[in-house]
Design brief:
The chain is mainly beta and 94 residues long. Helices cover 0% and strands 57% of the residues. The protein is built from no helices and nine strands.
Length: 94
């Protein structure tokens, strides 16, 4: 299911959204409190977890796509971009 899916941040509506690659089946995964988001990264080992940087709150955040549960993984990170690879997370700070 997720290999034919795209996920993006809509800064205008302050949401993280998902749709099929042809644009169908569009849905909102999460309503955001800030549009200052960067570095969306899907955990390709466990395709349920989506990570991103919230520059305003200086946090790295994880969302379980299936349950909608959001969790702050790390705070005090000046994170600009990140990626998840196997059991490791890498990010660029500014």
């Amino acid at each position: 299911m997720f290999c034919s899916t795209m996920i993006w941040v809509d800064s205008g509506s302050m949401t993280i959204e998902q749709a099929s690659l042809d644009g169908t089946d569009r849905k909102t995964l999460l309503n955001l409190t800030t549009s200052n988001i960067s570095g969306l990264s899907l955990d390709h080992t466990d395709r349920r977890m989506l990570f991103w940087c919230e520059r305003e709150t200086r946090s790295i955040v994880r969302l379980n796509i299936e349950t909608g549960i959001r969790y702050n993984v790390f705070t005090s990170a000046d994170c600009y971009s990140l990626t998840v690879f196997k059991t490791k997370m890498y990010w660029i700070d500014v």
